[in-house]
Specification:
Blueprint (H helix, E strand, L loop, with lengths): L1 H17 L12 H18 L4 H8 L2 H9 L7 H34 L3 H4 L1
Helix pairs in contact: 1-2, 1-5, 2-3, 2-4, 3-5, 4-5
Length: 120
């Protein structure tokens, strides 16, 4: 599933972003916020990798939690880091939703396509 690779990329971004920020631009992500986001990424990846509609929904259900973590970061966290995190997670959830929809369509087509024995 592409979402799994995307989650790995987002996790890498998070690790990089956690160290970003300078006194001129703002502070880096505090460790407890970085850990909370990493935990949500793990949940997203575990859920999405199930390859089931329930797994997809569970992955997408983490979105409000992620947004709350980002929204409650201290105001001195670099604004560009915040924006990058928001965009990255938004993209991750978009890809998961797309992958889930493609998976649903493929399953529906398989269920509605008559087998060879049914058509003869």
């Amino acid at each position: 599933m592409r979402a799994r690779a995307t989650a790995a990329a987002a996790l890498s971004l998070l690790a990089i972003a956690a160290g970003c920020g300078s006194d001129d631009e703002g502070q880096p992500i505090p460790p407890r916020f970085a850990t909370a986001l990493e935990n949500r990424l793990d949940r997203i990846q575990d859920s999405a990798s199930q390859g089931t509609p329930e797994g997809c929904q569970a992955a997408l259900d983490v979105d409000p939690e992620v947004q709350q973590i980002i929204d409650t970061m201290p105001q001195d966290v670099d604004a560009e880091v915040r924006d990058a995190l928001t965009r990255s997670f938004d993209r991750l959830f978009e890809l998961i939703a797309r992958d889930c929809n493609e998976q649903d369509r493929a399953e529906t087509e398989t269920e509605t396509t008559p087998t060879e024995t049914e058509t003869t």
